[in-house]
């Protein structure tokens, strides 16, 4: 407290991923560095899908992903000012246009899967240097999506409240794209192939990665497959963060893993994702938090009931929380409302009342009483890797 003002102090971060792209003259970063970013972001989205949180970021884009250090690959997600929780969706106009999911464009109820769509767009942009879908408006955005992915499935358009904005329904029940009022011409559906955009068989975007280590056709096929699963029109079948982390794109051979680096410097851009433990268990696909038994050996424990969270990368999610998400998030760390458990504290220490950090309930009440129109409260959630 300072002069009766509650002050929150945060670490100083480096530039964002858009700035990083600009530093490459929009030629993109290596596939290995893209993999490093992808694994951290999937891990962060996995955390946000925990039952205690179920937070939808709603504005995931390169500008909202910051480097911790300009010469390292560790990143942090920022700006939760548009975020909401499942069941408390309060905005219809969300997500920056280039990263806006089909369900938001079409007026279909959305969930945490919209962040996975944004992630797919971000990963392609990080490697190619250019936005995958760079629409000038929502109609243009939808047409650019159709150029790459083809027409949305009929069952998706049937439930869409805004389908008529983009499509005409024929007497037989099928849909076709509306003719643009401005006369702009588009390529036929699926004529702009994703594999050509990322350069699966041509040495990467523009052939710039030809013969570079970690940029083989096999590497690109894995990347293409992951992106396609992230850009599934149907949010029910779109890949989740859990299954994203199990994807072959993140599985590296022992030879490839020997030459790794965390640097974002173009001179040593051969970074690869840290190896993760791939469980053979197959939990049901849903947007609840999933923990496979084989992953428990790499954990940091967050205490509420028996929740145990696997973390495979060192990460920190900076949460700029609105009044819609703050109370639940605070409750996650306050099993008794008398203490806030430091998430770095092992479960046995917390249960025994050991070396965990504590915050009195009065401080929590002061935090909750801050007028949200004067201050958007932020909460730092630390996630550390146990080596």
TrEMBL record:
<keyword id="KW-0808">Transferase</keyword>
<keyword id="KW-0418">Kinase</keyword>
<dbReference type="InterPro" id="IPR000719">
    <property type="entry name" value="Prot_kinase_dom"/>
</dbReference>
<protein>
    <recommendedName>
        <fullName>dual-specificity kinase</fullName>
        <ecNumber>2.7.12.1</ecNumber>
    </recommendedName>
</protein>
<dbReference type="GO" id="GO:0004674">
    <property type="term" value="F:protein serine/threonine kinase activity"/>
</dbReference>
<keyword id="KW-0723">Serine/threonine-protein kinase</keyword>
<dbReference type="GO" id="GO:0005634">
    <property type="term" value="C:nucleus"/>
</dbReference>
<feature type="domain" description="Protein kinase">
    <location>
        <begin position="1"/>
        <end position="250"/>
    </location>
</feature>
<keyword id="KW-0547">Nucleotide-binding</keyword>
<keyword id="KW-0067">ATP-binding</keyword>
<dbReference type="Pfam" id="PF00069">
    <property type="entry name" value="Pkinase"/>
</dbReference>
<dbReference type="GO" id="GO:0005524">
    <property type="term" value="F:ATP binding"/>
</dbReference>
<keyword id="KW-0539">Nucleus</keyword>
<dbReference type="InterPro" id="IPR008271">
    <property type="entry name" value="Ser/Thr_kinase_AS"/>
</dbReference>
<dbReference type="InterPro" id="IPR011009">
    <property type="entry name" value="Kinase-like_dom_sf"/>
</dbReference>
<dbReference type="InterPro" id="IPR050494">
    <property type="entry name" value="Ser_Thr_dual-spec_kinase"/>
</dbReference>
<dbReference type="GO" id="GO:0004712">
    <property type="term" value="F:protein serine/threonine/tyrosine kinase activity"/>
</dbReference>
């Amino acid at each position: 407290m300072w002069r009766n003002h509650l002050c929150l102090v945060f670490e100083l971060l480096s530039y964002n991923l858009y700035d990083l792209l600009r530093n490459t003259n929009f030629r993109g970063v290596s596939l290995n560095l893209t993999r490093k970013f992808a694994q951290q972001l999937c891990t962060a989205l996995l955390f946000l899908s925990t039952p205690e949180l179920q937070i939808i970021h709603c504005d995931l884009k390169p500008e909202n992903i910051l480097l911790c250090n300009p010469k390292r690959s560790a990143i942090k997600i920022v700006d939760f000012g548009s975020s909401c929780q499942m069941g408390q969706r309060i905005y219809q106009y969300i997500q920056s246009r280039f990263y806006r999911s089909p369900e938001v464009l079409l007026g279909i109820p959305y969930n945490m899967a919209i962040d996975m769509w944004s992630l797919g767009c971000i990963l392609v942009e990080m490697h190619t240097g250019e936005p995958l879908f760079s629409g000038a408006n929502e109609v243009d955005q939808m047409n650019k999506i159709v150029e790459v992915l083809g027409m949305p499935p009929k069952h998706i358009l049937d439930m869409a409240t805004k389908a008529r904005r983009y499509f005409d329904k024929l007497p037989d029940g099928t849909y076709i794209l509306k003719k643009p009022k401005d006369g702009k011409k588009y390529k036929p559906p699926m004529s702009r192939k994703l594999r050509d955009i990322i350069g699966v068989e041509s040495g990467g975007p523009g052939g710039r990665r030809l013969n570079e280590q970690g940029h083989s056709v096999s590497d690109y096929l894995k990347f293409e497959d992951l992106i396609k699963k992230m850009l599934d029109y149907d949010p029910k079948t779109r890949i989740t963060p859990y299954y994203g982390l199990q994807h072959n794109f993140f599985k590296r051979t022992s030879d490839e893993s020997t030459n790794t680096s965390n640097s974002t410097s173009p001179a040593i851009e051969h970074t690869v994702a840290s190896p993760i433990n791939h469980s053979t268990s197959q939990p049901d696909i849903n947007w609840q938090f999933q923990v496979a038994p084989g992953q428990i050996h790499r954990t940091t424990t967050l205490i509420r009931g028996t929740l145990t969270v696997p973390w495979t990368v060192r990460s920190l999610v900076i949460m700029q929380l609105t009044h819609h998400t703050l109370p639940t998030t605070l409750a996650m760390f306050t099993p008794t409302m008398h203490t806030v458990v430091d998430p770095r504290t092992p479960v046995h220490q917390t249960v025994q009342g050991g070396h965990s950090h504590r915050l009195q309930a009065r401080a929590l009440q002061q935090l909750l009483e801050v007028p949200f129109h004067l201050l958007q409260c932020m909460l730092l959630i630390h996630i550390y890797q146990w080596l």
